[in-house]
């Protein structure tokens, strides 16, 4: 009888073991077509696929993506990989705020599911886009085991190259499409390295090659100190600090406002005065009020609505998110352990220029987080001659911004009145992208 008897604790252990085996044996890659989404009225007017691609030796890292086919001619139109910043900000930021075919309707939250509405400015009108949640721990991306190595800038460049190669292996109809990498904010540290990684892979290891044609960056972090030091001349140019304060800071701090020598007490006092002047400025878009995301008047209110939307069980089910893979969804996960091992992406830009890859670098001119002055400074440091000098670029008879083109096929553009990401001027951003990706002058 004893042999036939299995204690309840053993049964419980067996049940737990079975559940663990089931969870860890889930398919490492999956893809699902999504025809409709909770919050959107009717069928989606575009083709959406969501899924996971496993990367790493054991494919323990499961990277979640949203793929939207071009609404024009997906067989021939470019394929764009779009990354959000952070690190740790979900690619829903790009899809629902910046350049996707849907957005969250900005209305007072009443306890029901927030609504989604169509946009008129989606970059999917002219290209197919993969919106990728990375690094692991971002959005719906997760790890099936405890990570041994924490993510890093250079590590992400390799992981995303692996993701692309595997994704294209499962979507071979897109292998011949012109391929571009794009993103904004912190992704400016990683994307130039991804371009280099893909380019090297095409020559050294990976067949068939990825049809890499260039990259797009908006208000990109490039070299932290350079970006931040240029906030001071930017603040002066925008009349946020006085002439006298600016001249004193220039003279006493000698252009170094971030890592100030502790012995330079005079400079430290001036930096303190500067901080007081800009304390209540909303740095991603200095024209807008600095308010809590719970205020409907604030751009960030959509983040609140998106959090309610993405944490709804019906939404997760519609997106085919693996059950139990993550806890609460957050738009930006600032808790991800991460190594910032690329101190400057300028050398990568240089290498990509030497390899002949065109690039579009654009800046919302009212962003103080990564001000256009710093972006122009590192572009100048590449030392390429100017092909098409500073001029306005137009939409109809209105100036939409200014642009300049360099001999290394790099186009720089400002978006007049724009902020830290395309979400602040989406129509203008779309027209700029559409012209550039089609090979037309802005």
Description:
With 442 residues, the protein is α/β, with parallel strands linked by helices. The protein has a single domain, classed as Alpha/Beta hydrolase fold, catalytic domain (Rossmann fold), CATH 3.40.50. It is 33% helix and 19% strand. It has helices at 8-24, 92-98, 153-170, 187-204, 224-229, 231-237, 243-253, 265-278, 301-310, 313-319, 346-354, 372-381, 426-437; strands at residues 30-34, 48-55, 61-68, 79-83, 102-104, 116-118, 128-132, 142-143, 179-184, 212-218, 359-364, 386-395, 398-406, 410-415. The strands form 2 sheets. Strands 1, 2, 3, 4, 7, 8, 9, 10, 11, 12, 13 and 14 form a 12-stranded mixed β-sheet that branches. A hairpin with a 2-residue loop joins strand 12 (386-395) and strand 13 (398-406). Helix 3 crosses helix 4 (187-204), helix 4 (187-204) runs parallel beside helix 11 and helix 7 runs antiparallel to helix 8. Residues 1-27 have low confidence and may be disordered.
What is the topology?
Blueprint lengths: L7 H17 L5 E5 L13 E8 L5 E8 L10 E5 L8 H7 L3 E3 L11 E3 L9 E5 L9 E2 L9 H18 L8 E6 L2 H18 L7 E7 L5 H6 L1 H7 L5 H11 L11 H14 L22 H10 L2 H7 L26 H9 L4 E6 L7 H10 L4 E10 L2 E9 L3 E6 L10 H12 L5
Parallel strand pairs: 4-7, 4-9, 9-10, 10-11, 11-14
Antiparallel strand pairs: 1-2, 2-3, 3-7, 3-8, 5-6, 12-13, 13-14
Helix pairs in contact: 3-4, 4-11, 7-8
What are the salient characteristics of this protein?
12-stranded mixed beta sheet; 14 strands; 442 residues; 13 helices; alpha/beta; Rossmann fold
């Amino acid at each position: 009888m004893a042999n036939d008897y299995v204690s309840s604790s053993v049964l419980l252990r067996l049940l737990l073991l079975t559940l663990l085996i089931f969870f860890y044996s889930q398919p490492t890659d999956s893809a699902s077509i999504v025809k409709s989404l909770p919050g959107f009225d009717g069928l989606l007017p575009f083709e959406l696929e969501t899924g996971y691609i496993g990367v790493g030796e054991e494919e323990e890292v499961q990277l979640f993506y949203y793929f939207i086919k071009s609404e024009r001619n997906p067989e021939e139109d470019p394929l764009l990989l779009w990354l959000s910043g952070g690190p740790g900000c979900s690619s829903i930021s790009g899809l629902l705020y910046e350049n996707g075919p849907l957005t969250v309707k900005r209305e007072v939250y009443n306890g029901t599911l927030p609504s989604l509405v169509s946009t008129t400015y989606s970059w999917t009108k002219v290209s197919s886009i993969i919106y990728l949640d990375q690094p692991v721990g971002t959005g719906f991306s997760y790890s099936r085991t405890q990570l041994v190595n924490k993510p890093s800038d250079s590590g992400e460049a390799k992981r995303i190259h692996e993701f692309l190669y595997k994704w294209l292996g499962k979507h071979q109809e897109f292998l011949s499409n012109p391929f571009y990498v794009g993103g904004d904010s912190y992704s400016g540290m990683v994307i130039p390295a991804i371009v280099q990684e893909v380019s090297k892979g095409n020559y050294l290891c990976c067949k068939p090659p990825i049809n890499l044609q260039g990259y797009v960056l908006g208000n990109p972090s490039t070299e932290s100190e350079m970006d931040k030091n240029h906030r001071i001349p930017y603040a002066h140019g925008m009349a946020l600090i006085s002439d006298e304060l600016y001249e004193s800071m220039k003279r006493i701090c000698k252009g170094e406002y971030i890592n100030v020598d502790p012995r330079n007490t005079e400079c430290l006092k001036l930096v303190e005065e500067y901080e007081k002047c800009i304390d209540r400025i909303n740095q991603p878009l200095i024209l807008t009020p600095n308010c809590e995301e719970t205020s409907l008047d604030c751009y960030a209110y959509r983040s609140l609505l998106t959090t309610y939307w993405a944490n709804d069980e019906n939404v997760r089910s519609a997106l085919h998110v693996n059950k139990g893979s993550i806890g609460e969804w957050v738009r930006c996960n600032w808790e991800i352990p991460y190594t910032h091992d690329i101190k400057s992406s300028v050398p990568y830009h240089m290498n990509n220029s030497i390899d002949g890859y065109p690039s579009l670098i654009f800046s919302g001119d009212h962003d103080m987080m990564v001000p256009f002055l710093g972006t122009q400074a590192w572009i100048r440091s590449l030392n390429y001659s100017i092909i098409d000098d500073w001029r306005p670029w137009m939409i109809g008879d209105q100036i939409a911004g200014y642009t300049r083109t360099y001999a290394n096929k790099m186009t720089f553009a400002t978006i007049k009145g724009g902020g830290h990401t395309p979400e602040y001027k989406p129509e203008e951003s779309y027209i700029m992208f559409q012209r550039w990706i089609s090979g037309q002058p802005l």
